[in-house]
């Protein structure tokens, strides 16, 4: 039975440092049960602790990213059965030090929408639709949708999405700043991997620190966020070893010399 539950959340690690988590219940539009949510939380925890993993991609199998919580399991989830931080998917996503790229392949509804908002970068298929059904079914939001969505697209647009419970298509989501880019369904995972590979080319330690200062600073007023960045910057350079500073200078000098060389004519 445990193996069957595991198969509902697939984790694939490639050799180049990218791990892909797939919500794998396509026949039910990837509706989430309690066990799936717990497994998803543990998957993020394990990948965050895995030194071979540098970037995480999250997607869904079939034609949906996730249709939200399985209605047959709704009482368990809504009444807080998944209540410890260790088994809370969103809590583990927020704690994850590594960049999380959401590849939204289709319908992304309510709890699925909330999980998408827990990602750091979103790429959407042209088939993607974002829907918040809390108001339609009398379910009070408790996983952050009411707060994260308005910070992503603004309070006026968020009110329209949430109070009307109508679908937000991928093109409008991109226009409103919810997703980074929209691509054809066949290109979705390739686009997500392309972003992951671009991240992998950079300084791993600084990528982790940069993600943290962006996410932590976003929670603060601008003045406090600027102070936070300055404090962490000072701490970063104060702890830098002489050989690390020299390596950084050498890298910058090497890049500068390459950029200054004239391009050869064909």
Fill in the keyword field for this structure:
266 residues, alpha/beta, 2-enoyl-CoA Hydratase, Chain A, domain 1, 2 domains, six-stranded mixed β-sheet, four-stranded mixed β-sheet, Enoyl-CoA hydratase
Q: What is the helix content?
A: 40-55%
Distance between the termini: 63 Å
Main beta sheet strand tally, sense and closure: 6 strands, mixed
- Strand line-up in the sheet with most strands: 1-2-3-5-7-10
Give the uncertain stretches in residue-range form: none
Organism: Physcomitrium patens (Spreading-leaved earth moss)
Protein name: Enoyl-CoA hydratase
Family: Belongs to the enoyl-CoA hydratase/isomerase family.
InterPro entries: ClpP/crotonase-like_dom_sf, Enoyl-CoA_hydra/iso
Describe it:
This protein has 266 residues and is an alpha/beta fold. The chain has 13 helices and ten strands. It has helices spanning 2-7, 34-49, 74-78, 89-95, 111-117, 134-137, 145-153, 155-164, 170-175, 188-200, 204-218, 222-238, 242-260, and strands spanning 9-13, 18-23, 55-60, 64-66, 100-104, 107-109, 121-125, 129-131, 168-169, 181-183. Strands 1-2-3-5-7-10 form a six-stranded mixed beta sheet, with helices on both faces. Strands 4-6-8-9 form a four-stranded mixed beta sheet. Helix 2 (34-49) runs parallel beside helix 4 (89-95), helix 7 crosses helix 8 (155-164) and helix 11 (204-218) packs antiparallel against helix 12 (222-238). The mean pLDDT is 90. It comes from Physcomitrium patens. This is Enoyl-CoA hydratase.
Please outline what is shown here:
The protein has 2 domains: about 1-200, 2-enoyl-CoA Hydratase, Chain A, domain 1; about 220-260. The chain contains 13 helices and 10 strands.
């Amino acid at each position: 039975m445990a193996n069957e539950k595991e198969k509902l959340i697939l984790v694939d690690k490639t050799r180049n440092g990218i791990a892909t988590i797939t919500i794998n219940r396509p026949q039910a539009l990837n509706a989430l049960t309690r066990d799936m949510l717990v497994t998803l939380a543990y998957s993020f925890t394990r990948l965050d602790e895995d030194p071979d993993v540098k970037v995480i991609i999250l997607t869904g199998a079939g034609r949906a990213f996730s249709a939200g919580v399985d209605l047959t399991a709704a009482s368990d989830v809504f009444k807080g059965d998944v209540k410890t931080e260790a088994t809370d998917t969103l809590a583990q996503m927020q704690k994850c030090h590594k960049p999380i790229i959401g590849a939204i392949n289709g319908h992304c509804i309510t709890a699925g929408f909330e999980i998408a908002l827990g990602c750091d970068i979103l790429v959407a298929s042209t088939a993607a639709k974002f829907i918040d059904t809390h108001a339609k079914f009398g379910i009070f939001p408790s996983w952050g949708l009411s707060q994260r969505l308005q910070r992503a697209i603004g309070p006026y647009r968020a009110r329209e999405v949430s109070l009307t419970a109508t679908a937000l298509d991928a093109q409008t989501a991109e226009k409103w700043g919810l997703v980074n880019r929209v691509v054809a369904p066949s290109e979705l995972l390739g686009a997500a991997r392309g972003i992951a590979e671009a991240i992998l080319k950079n300084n791993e330690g600084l990528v982790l620190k940069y993600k943290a200062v962006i996410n932590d600073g976003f929670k603060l007023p601008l003045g406090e966020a600027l102070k936070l960045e300055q404090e962490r910057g000072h701490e970063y350079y104060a702890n830098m070893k002489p050989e690390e500073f020299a390596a950084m200078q050498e890298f910058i000098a090497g890049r500068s010399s390459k950029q200054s060389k004239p391009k050869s004519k064909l």
